[in-house]
Every structure is written in structure tokens, then in C-alpha cells.
């Protein structure tokens, strides 16, 4: 990227930048004036977009950018009516470039659940109680070739004495978007990420089916076969049961001959919370400026 300057002092700052000694934060807003010969500056742009909001939001001065996984997407796991169903998948993209001597890395973190004006910190990996996410597992990971999200990482074992997590982020630290000094033509790099949500379905039991068939041929010989299969039985996905609404109907009638008839019926209805107010999930992407000069520490 080419910049022109208007003062000798500013031109001197450019020379320092070329030597790799200027703080990386200055790369986010290089504004110089007065006329001196053009020189190559390092400049950085970093943003993120999602399948929900496709227009990228860009970092202001190296601050993190966020994408928001809608609560209405989270509750789609309630449609997973089979054991080990395919996860609900939502995608987002990190993009940007670093010109001149600069490079660009970033960190990814799931930071909070947000509903109306309330925010719940989930940086520990534990979801807000009473939400669909609390009874699900969210995994955030880099997409494969062509945006493939089918290779969902296995859930890590929970260390003894710790609560199981609802949120896992894989390969999220110091992710290289663009190596230093490799985008002199301004080409923007992008990387797609997957957020896969699965309901924590636990089979209530296994139904064993056995079939035995025996037949006798004309010559008196006996033949038999046995087949066996298993069916896993589980409850449909839902939030915690609020209670049971019991209904009782009693009907009594008297006929013309004064005989009486009486009948009753009872049924129950399970009451569950409305999941439509599920909080959104905020995912933060924090850019890190790197440098071709190994003595310069990466920073915002």
C-alpha cells in the first residue's frame, strides 16, 4: 500500500515502520499528510461475517469483532428426534489482509449468551441454566475444504471433579490468516468456521428384538434361523419439565327408564417452557498483527 506524507516528522515515522519498530496498533489507522516520496506502509484490515449477517464487520483499531449465532438457530436441535442425529450447523468467516511487512493472526472465543439486555458469560464453556444450550453441546471448529462441516471433533473427556462443558472451541488460538509480508498486492484472505450444535440425547433404554423361525421339510429334517436387533428408546428433546396438567372428565346420564349411566376419563399433559426466547450466542474474533521482523512481538 502506498502513502504520502506532509511533514518530515511523519516521514521519519514511516521509516521506523519499515524497520519493524512501530507499534502494531498504528497499522490500523495510518493517516499521514504532506508530500514526500511514496513508501510502502504496513496496513491491516480484519473482519468477520456469518451466514446470518453476510456483510462483514471490521475491527476498529485492532479491537475484537463479533458474530452472533441466533437463538432461533440453537433451538433447531429440538427437531433432532433420533439418537445421534446430525448436528445443526451454522457458519461464519474471518477475513482480512495485512500489507507491507505485517501479517495477521487471530483468536476465536465463545464469550456470552445474550437475550434482550441480559448477558451471561460462557467463557468457561458452561451454558446459562434453563436454556436449550445447557442441554446441548456447541462445537466451534475450522471448516474443511469447500466449507465442509461434517468432520465434527470428538467431545473431550471431562476431567474428574469438573462439570461437563456445553461449549468447545477447537484450534482457536493464534490462527494464522495471512503470513507477514505475503499480501503486497492487497489480496484478502478468508477462513470459514463451523458451529455445530447437538442435543445431548441419552437413550432411556434399549429394546431387544428376537425372532426365531423353525420349519420342517418334507423329508422330516428341521431348519431354523434366528435374527436379533436393538432399538434405542429416548425422550424427545425438550427443556426441563415444568409440571403435569391433569384433566378429569366425569359424565353421568339418566335414561327414560330411570336407569343411570356414568363414565369418567382422565389424561395428563406435560408442560414445558417455551424455547423461542433462547439467547443468542456471541463469538469473538480477536486480531493479532504479526511482523516479518522476529524481534517485534505480535500484538493488536
What is the strand and helix layout of this fold?
Elements: E1 2-3, H1 8-18, E2 39-40, E3 44-50, E4 57-58, E5 65-69, H2 71-74, E6 88-98, E7 102-115, E8 118-121, E9 136-142, E10 167-169, E11 175-178, E12 189-199, E13 205-216, E14 222-233, E15 243-254, E16 260-271, E17 280-291
Parallel strand pairs: 9-10
Antiparallel strand pairs: 1-2, 3-4, 3-6, 5-17, 6-12, 7-8, 7-11, 7-17, 9-12, 13-14, 15-16
Outline of the structure:
With 300 residues, this protein is mostly beta strands. It is built from two helices and 17 strands. It folds into three domains: 1-41, no CATH class; 44-202 and 276-291, Immunoglobulin-like, CATH 2.60.40; 243-272, no CATH class.
Describe the structure.
It is a single chain. This protein is mainly β and 300 residues long. The chain has 3 domains: 1-41, no CATH class; 44-202 and 276-291, Immunoglobulin-like; 243-272, no CATH class. 5% of the residues lie in helices and 44% in strands. It has helices at residues 8-18, 71-74; strands at residues 2-3, 39-40, 44-50, 57-58, 65-69, 88-98, 102-115, 118-121, 136-142, 167-169, 175-178, 189-199, 205-216, 222-233, 243-254, 260-271, 280-291. The strands form 5 sheets. It has a 6-stranded mixed β-sheet, with no helix packed on it. Strands 5, 7, 8, 11 and 17 form a 5-stranded antiparallel β-sheet that branches. The longest helix has 11 residues, at 8-18. The protein starts with a strand and ends in a 9-residue tail after the last strand.
Amino acid at each position: 500500500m502506498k502513502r504520502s506524507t506532509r511533514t518530515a516528522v511523519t516521514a521519519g515515522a514511516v521509516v521506523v515502520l519499515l524497520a519493524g519498530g512501530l507499534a502494531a496498533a498504528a497499522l490500523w489507522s495510518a493517516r499521514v499528510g504532506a508530500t514526500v516520496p511514496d513508501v510502502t506502509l504496513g496496513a491491516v484490515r480484519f473482519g468477520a461475517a456469518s451466514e446470518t449477517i453476510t456483510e462483514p464487520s471490521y475491527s476498529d483499531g485492532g479491537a475484537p469483532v463479533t458474530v452472533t449465532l441466533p437463538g432461533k438457530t440453537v433451538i433447531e436441535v429440538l427437531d433432532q428426534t433420533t439418537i445421534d442425529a446430525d448436528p445443526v450447523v451454522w457458519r461464519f468467516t474471518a477475513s482480512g489482509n495485512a500489507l507491507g511487512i505485517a501479517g495477521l493472526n487471530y483468536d476465536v472465543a465463545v464469550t456470552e449468551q445474550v437475550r434482550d439486555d441480559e448477558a451471561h458469560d460462557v467463557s468457561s464453556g458452561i451454558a446459562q441454566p434453563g436454556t436449550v444450550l445447557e442441554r446441548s453441546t456447541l462445537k466451534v471448529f475450522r471448516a474443511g475444504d469447500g466449507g465442509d462441516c461434517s468432520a465434527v471433533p470428538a467431545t473431550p473427556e471431562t476431567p474428574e471433579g469438573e462439570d461437563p462443558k456445553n461449549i468447545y472451541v477447537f484450534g482457536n488460538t493464534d490462527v494464522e490468516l495471512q503470513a507477514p509480508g505475503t499480501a503486497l498486492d492487497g489480496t484478502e484472505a478468508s477462513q470459514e468456521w463451523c458451529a455445530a450444535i447437538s442435543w445431548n440425547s441419552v437413550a432411556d433404554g434399549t429394546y431387544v428384538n428376537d425372532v426365531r423361525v423353525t420349519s420342517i421339510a418334507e423329508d422330516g429334517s428341521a431348519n431354523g434361523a434366528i435374527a436379533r436387533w436393538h432399538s434405542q428408546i429416548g425422550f424427545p428433546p425438550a427443556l426441563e419439565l415444568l409440571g403435569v396438567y391433569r384433566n378429569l372428565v366425569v359424565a353421568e346420564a339418566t335414561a327414560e327408564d330411570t336407569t343411570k349411566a356414568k363414565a369418567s376419563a382422565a389424561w395428563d399433559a406435560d408442560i414445558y417452557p417455551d424455547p423461542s426466547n433462547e439467547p443468542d450466542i456471541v463469538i469473538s474474533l480477536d486480531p493479532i498483527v504479526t511482523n516479518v521482523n522476529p524481534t517485534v512481538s505480535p500484538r493488536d
